[in-house]
Amino acid sequence: MSDLTLDPARINTSEGPVVIVAAGSEERERSSTGHRHARGQLMGSMRGLLSVGVEDGQWIVPAIHAVWLPPHHFHAVRSHGPFSGWSVYVAEPACADLPQRPCTLRTSGLLREAVLRAATWGLDPLDAQRERVAQLILDEIRYAPPAPFGLPLPRDPRLQRVARALIDDPADQRDLESWARAAAMSSRTLTRRFSAETGFGFVAWRQRARLMRALEMLAADKPVTMVAMDLGYASASAFIKLFAREFGATPAAYRRALPAS
Question: Is 70 exceeded by the pLDDT of residue 148?
């Protein structure tokens, strides 16, 4: 379905097609309050970063990944900026041998194309050809190796304001003391709480937030030098070095491995 909004009754029953797909774009930020539904959900963004809240935290997920949520799992979603993406809703009986915990999956070109085709089907019963595509989508969820969520968000509302500001403008060069003043706490407290709530020190978290945005920009075919400059790195070589240390490949090699657009 081209409309991103589905009747809640459709995703709270296993009646109908084994997979129901919604896809589309919005020129404004997309968000949903916390909720759960009977169908499992695989969601992906073709443009932009997603914040996904689950019962044990909130996470930043880049566009090249998809998020799997088993049936009845609490979640809330927010895009950072305009949104273009899709969701696959899987009937609960078909989720029995799919991942039983929320996880992220690297989006393959095969999965993306199958999902976008299924988005044109509507809610009619599946014929034999469409059933094969639906089973392909389930296989991609079933066999893709789970990956850690991209980046945890802190729980403290003051730290969340800092984190979201950095996500929205990764090139912001304010130092630790300036961010601490913005959060109305000491730099030592900010550092300690950031580490306790995210598992990353503040500097490491900010660096990883920039790299999450870099993944999106590389997927959009932005030149490596432009990515480095737009994200506030001192030089392209500094960006390449940090990127390779984090992801085990240079930005150019990483981009070559992405699914074709």
Answer: no
